[in-house]
């Protein structure tokens, strides 16, 4: 059983090798997005290096412990009978512990990756504002109709949508978005 394939975050771990900024396809890459992408790629590279260095360190430790365990059991063989099956059981026990530690390391890194991806995704969400012209038109309508700031269906459909070049739904929420 390969620990990487059994890890719930294996897709996240694979994403370390090919970091792609988690932004909507409809958003254009402006200067702020480019800075975020640079920071994202840098952080993913840092996490990838950290993961692989930890896995390499664990593998070296496993090999060292396995060698020492075999040597200790061979030395013990002089004092009491130890067969090959006992040695294999001891090595298998160490291997299982090694796999658990490797899986735990991958899960920790996967959690860090997902947390950072969520942070980047939150930073890339842009508030969809009206254009200055549309805001001026809607603000003028709002000020001229203070007694009844919510436009009728007809006014929304004909006048305001055409003048401000926004969608019907955007016009509908404008009065609620005003903070007086």
UniProtKB/TrEMBL annotation:
Pfam family, one: PBC
Domain PBC residues, every copy: 1-122
InterPro entries in the record: Homeodomain-like_sf (IPR009057), PBX_PBC_dom (IPR005542), TALE_homeobox (IPR050224)
Entry keyword set: DNA-binding, Homeobox, Nucleus
First-listed, main subcellular location of the protein, grouped into a coarse class: nucleus
SUPFAM superfamilies, sorted: Homeodomain-like
One cellular component (GO) term of this entry: nucleus
Organism: Ancylostoma ceylanicum
Domain of life: Eukaryota
Signal sequence, start to end: none
Subcellular location(s) of the protein: Nucleus
Origin organism lineage: Eukaryota, Metazoa, Ecdysozoa, Nematoda, Chromadorea
GO MF annotation terms: DNA-binding transcription factor activity; sequence-specific double-stranded DNA binding
Name used for this protein in its record: PBC domain-containing protein
């Amino acid at each position: 059983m390969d620990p990487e394939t059994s890890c719930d975050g294996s897709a996240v771990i694979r994403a370390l090798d090919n970091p792609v900024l988690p932004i909507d396809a409809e958003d254009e890459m402006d200067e702020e997005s480019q800075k975020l992408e640079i920071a994202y790629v840098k952080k993913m590279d840092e996490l990838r290096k950290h993961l692989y260095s930890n896995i390499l360190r664990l593998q070296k430790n496993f090999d060292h412990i396995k060698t020492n365990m075999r040597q200790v059991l061979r030395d013990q063989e002089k004092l009491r009978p130890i067969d090959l099956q006992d040695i294999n059981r001891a090595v298998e026990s160490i291997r299982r512990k090694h796999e658990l530690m490797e899986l735990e390391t991958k899960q920790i890194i996967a959690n860090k990756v997902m947390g950072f991806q969520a942070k980047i995704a939150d930073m890339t969400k842009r508030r969809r504002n009206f254009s200055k012209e549309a805001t001026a038109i809607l603000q003028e309508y709002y000020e001229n109709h203070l007694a009844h700031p919510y436009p009728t269906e007809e006014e929304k459909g004909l006048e305001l949508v055409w003048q401000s070049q926004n969608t019907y739904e955007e016009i509908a929420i404008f009065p609620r978005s005003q903070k007086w």
